[in-house]
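Thread: Newbie trying to understand structure tokens

Hi all, I'm a second-year student working on a class project, and my supervisor (Dr. K.) asked me to get a predicted structure for one chain before our next meeting. I've only ever worked with sequences, so writing a 3D structure as a token string is new to me. If someone could post the tokens and maybe explain what I'm looking at, I'd be very grateful. Here's the chain:
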Amino acid sequence: MNTTLEVLNRIYGGPMIKPDIPKNEAERLHALRTLKILDTSHEERFDRVTRMAKRMFNVSVSLVSLVDEDRQWFKSKQGVDVSETPRDISFCGHAINQEGLFIIPDASKDERFFDNPLVVDEPKIRFYAGYPLKLRHGINIGTLCLIDPKPKGLNEEDQQLLQDLGAMIEQEIQSVQLATLDELTLISNRRGFLNLVGHSLKMCRRNKMPITFILFDLDKFKLINDTHGHHEGDFVLSTFAQAMLSSFRDCDVVGRIGGDEFVAMLSNAHEENSEIVLERFSNAIEKINETLDKPYKIEYSAGVTYFDYDTDKSIEDMIQDADKAMYEQKKRIAR
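---
Reply by user tm_fold:
Sure, no problem. This is what the structure looks like when written as tokens:
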């Protein structure tokens, strides 16, 4: 270690400070992956903005960086050849924890970054400025960022310009989001669910993993709408969707496919695994009902179907089988 790093380590206490993981990380990652833009080819609508940013700010690097579970991946890049770097050394991993711009005038003098490999070695980052890219309030999936090997600053006008360019990227990402996400609950709509399941099925077949489909239907939902108003109905739908996100595993796919119908596909889930997930979900809904103390209860029926990895059924067929199982459960409860 050179003398400068030794001095800085004595001042700051070293070693490198890794970015914190957001409290809503599961929700954030789900939103990012539902977009299905990770590991896709470059697109002119994003590249146009990073080219503008690189030229306007006279920096060596401009990126649209998406922060995945253990990496940051570059949807658009100007000035670098690599497509991704580890999340634990990324500047953008820190930036997504901010509401506003994240600006580091000189990383070599910052306690969080002075011994970061990207600062000590190539590309020898000194200046960094990142605009957190939001899908909605609190859900930051990445950044539009500027990087340079020379220390820099941004005046108020420059900061506003970076925010304006970042907003352009957000609009492009939201156009992707609207095509695959349910606008009310912000989980996958039918199209988004089918897209994600198609990918998951390939993985299950490749690794010979069993598949479970679960179809949920909200009970007495029309009564809630009629008695308490559609705003309460919307609240129930959103609350139910969030309970699914928190209860199911990261590798599971969930979606809203109809008015009060939701569906989940579980990968590598035997009957016992599926029952554990369903029990966890049931407990989550029970806790919500106790905590909210509403004049109604959130109630649902669920149909569960199991398939081998090599099933010849289509995704729609498997959903239909789960739908039939759900209505059978409704009949049993009604008796």
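A couple of things are worth pointing out once you decode it. Residues 7-13 have pLDDT under 50 and may be disordered. The longest strand covers residues 127-136. Feel free to ask follow-ups in this thread.
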